[in-house]
Amino acid sequence: MTSPDQPAPSAPADTSLANRYGAKKRGLSAAAKRAIAVVALAGGIGFMAWVSTSNSLTDISFKDIGYSTPDGTLAEVDFQVTREPGTAVQCAVKALDSKFAIVGWKVVDIPADAREGTSDGGRTVTQRVAVRTESPSVSGVVDDCWIADKAD
């Protein structure tokens, strides 16, 4: 009588995979995970502190008050700028047509000593700017304001 064929003993799966692909990688220790979390948290707090202070250092805001179009080639824009007293500012003012295309553009200088008509010592100044247009405009707005370069 013959016995059925017995399969040859095979190596355990872990050993054969380890031989082929290398040993399993060790995970990070609890202390290493904690250190990474602390560094990431400190970096996040530092970034938030930098963002909040950098915005307050260049605190310039502007508000459109109104506009008028005396004729087809001119738009007058009224706006307010709030900045630190004694800071020279430049603002880009644009005139738009009915399809919101820019038909006029002007950069306006607001000197550091512009204090006329202000009750807060020059922090908020009101400006009226005439912008020449290439076609009739239907609105005028301030696009952006920034601190003027010292060389200007």
UniProtKB/TrEMBL annotation:
InterPro entries: DUF4307. Keywords: Membrane, Transmembrane, Transmembrane helix. The chain crosses the membrane at residues 35-53. The keyword Membrane applies. This is DUF4307 domain-containing protein. It comes from Arthrobacter nitrophenolicus. The lineage of its organism: Bacteria, Bacillati, Actinomycetota, Actinomycetes, Micrococcales.
